[in-house]
Specification:
Helix 3 packs across helix 4 and helix 4 (about 115-125) runs antiparallel to helix 5. This protein starts with 20 loop residues before the first helix and ends with a helix. It has nine helices and four strands. With about 210 residues, the chain is mainly alpha-helical. A hairpin with a 4-residue loop joins strand 2 (about 50) and strand 3 (about 55-60). The chain has a domain at about 80-214. The strands form two sheets. It has a two-stranded antiparallel ribbon. Helices cover about 55% and strands about 5% of the residues. It is globular, with a radius of gyration of 17 Å.
Amino acid sequence: MPLLFSYLSISSHHLKSKLTESGRQLFRSLIQTFSVFGFFNPDSHGGNIIIDPEKKLISIIDLGQVEQFEVNGMFSSDDRVILTQFLDSFQRKDAKRLVSSMKKMATNKNFSTKNLEKVMSSILSNKGLPLDQSFVEIVTQAADNGLRMKGKFSFGIIKGLIVITGEGYIPKDEMKEVIASEFKQVVKKKFPVFLMQSVRGGSCMEFMKRVFSY
């Protein structure tokens, strides 16, 4: 399994401090490992991180929960595209597109899209809901409304984002910036896929504006 975070240069051994360079590099590396290679470790809490300040080395232990996601070429959709659409819709508080991306994560189809859109809209509009709790509510309410999400998404990437947010490796605003940056890279790599999906959905011009706004 390729790991980008094996030989990071770090400036502090206080990993859980929100302002340390090590936390920033760790978070960025976890996201990049997913966006580039399709691997993600949802169990990256502080107890599974070892730092050697003398060698300036971060090591990840206990990789038993690492998930491998589908990675295809430029012209084919894959799990990175689905998650990118999910996170972009979440950040833009677009319940309809959020549910559309969640349907691609589901193992079943026997649920009400309209009901789910209503529930997701309520979650996204709750300004007082912390970022990690928002992810918890999305997964919980999806299940309560009949959408069974594939484990690699619910207990993989989304659980991992909840863990990372809770650990405070990086300030939440900066976390959003890193995710947006990786979204931009995925869009560049998979541009034909995103463009064709936007054409089919009748939102080609909106998509182009969003791409060039990053």
